[in-house]
Amino acid sequence: MSAAFSVLGLAFILWVYKSNGNSNILLGVGWFVLMEMLQVVQYLYIATDIDPANPTLDQMENSQMCQSSANQFLTFLGLVHIAFQPMFSAYLSNAFVRSDANKHVFAFVTRIQFWGGIWLISRSLLTYVDPRHFEFFWGFNYGNTFDASAWSHSTSVEWLSGPALCCYKGFHHLAWSIPMLPVSYYVPSMSVHMMLMFLPFFTLDHGSFGKNIGNRIAGVLLFLTGPVLADWITPNRHESASIWCFFSILQVVGLVAIMIAQMLAKGRWFTKRGERAKSKSS
Q: What is the span of the domain harbouring residue 100?
């Protein structure tokens, strides 16, 4: 199915490029198509010897596929993609921003989302730092460091957080286990992704009541058919993220199709066709 969604997304991108060429839509849809393509490749290296009902550090350490560099690299790419999803989602929801004031606000929001993504990725990268450095250089105690042996599936409610870097077979789809530092004032939880993803839908002013309501409804629909639905489908928090990513291309294409339908009704979508007509007449 990921392969089919990849083809659907690529076809949609091609149509947008030829009919309008809106760079925000191309960037936004393209980013989510990349996730579908990444999931196709991940299935070639997926670990099938991990119990999705009770994944443990011991299972992952003894799994040949979990210990493979290809599996771990692809899993980390999944984290990178997830970290920047809010920014590319903003490209889509603000695809038709026109006023200079709104463009400046949009640019400011995407900068925050970019650095928020870096912040989230750093939470995983810092698990590879020698714990002694936390105390020696920064004065933190060992409670601020990553302890794989302390992780437990029964007590962990956070998406992606796991005892080892591994992509394994979940109940329905891929499951991503990613080591992360404990949450503190200096280290964000996965909720920073939720804030960066959904807050712009409710705070950005698109210039009119109708546009703002439409954008907020889109944010609510994305929330309900995204993380909420994913958590309902699976009890495995490593799998929730991949399930949302799996059908995110349908969400993206659906929401963009609504915006395009509005542009079509106003006769403002086929800009490239008009440009070609003008070039021929001249």
A: 43-249
